[in-house]
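User: Sequence in, structure out. Go.
Assistant: Echoing your sequence, followed by the C-alpha cells.
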Amino acid sequence: MLKERIQSAIIMFSLFSITFFYLDYIFFEFLVLAIGGFLLFELSKILKLHGLSLSFFWILASVPLFIYFVATFTSNFGNFFNLSKYFYYTNTLYPLISNILSILIPFLASLSLIFWLFIVPLDILYKKISSNSLLKVFYGLFLITPMLLTIMSIFIINKNILLVIILMIWFADIGAYFSGKKFGRLKIVKNISPGKTFEGLLGGLLSNIIFILLLHVYGIFDIVDGILFAFLVTALSLYGDIYESFLKRMAKIKDSSNLIPGHGGFLDRMDSFCPTIPILYFLLRTFEYL
C-alpha cells in the first residue's frame, strides 16, 4: 500500500512539474481538464446521478470549460491550424470568447463563494441539498468547474501565485496528517470525518506559517498578509476535505474511486482545492492582487 502511494505520488508530481514549469501553457490546461473529467465522473458517482440528471450534470459543468478551452486553444494553435481562415479567429472569434470569459470566470468564482459560504453549511446541517434530485444536478457547476477555471486563469495571470497556493494546500494537508496522527485528540467533526482533529488543524497551520516566514525572508510575502493568507488557505483546505467526507458519508462510500493506486480517487486528493482556489481567486481579484 505504501509503495503504491509513493509510486502514484511520484507520477502525479512529475506530470504536474513538467506541465507547470517546462511545457507550453496548453499542456498544463490539458492536464487540468483531464483531471477535471475524472473529478466530475467521481462526483457524479458520489451523488448517484443517472439518466437525464447525469446528462444535465455533465452539460452544466462542461459548457464553461468548453468555452474556455476553445478560447485558449485557438489563441495557441489558431494560426498553426489556420483556424482564422474558417472562423475569423483574429477579428471575431477569439475577442468574443475572451469577453465572455472575462465575465464568466469571475461570475463562477462568485457562485463558488456563495456555494461554500451558504449552501454547504446548510447541507451539512440539514442533509437536504446534496440529496435533492434537482439541486445535485448543479453540483459539478458549483463544486468542480469554478476550481478548474480559476486554476487555469491564475496560471495565465501569475503562475507564481498559483504555485504558492498549491504548495500551501499541500503543506496544510501534510502538516495536518502528521500532527493529527501524533497528537490528535480533539475531534472537529466526529460524525463526518473522525480523523480530523484540532491538533491536526494547528499542525497544518504551523506548516503554512513556517512556509510564509521562509517566503518573507526572501522578500516574497509581507509577513502580516502572509500569515492571514496561511490562516485562510488552511481553513479552506480543511473545509473542502470535510465536505467531501460528508458527501461520501451520505453516499456510504469510503473513497471517491480507486483510480489512483494507494490514494483512492482524484476527488480524495483534490477536495481541498475545490473551495480554496475559487475563493482565493475572488478575494485576490477583489483586492487587486491579480
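User: And one key feature?
Assistant: The chain has a mean pLDDT of 88.
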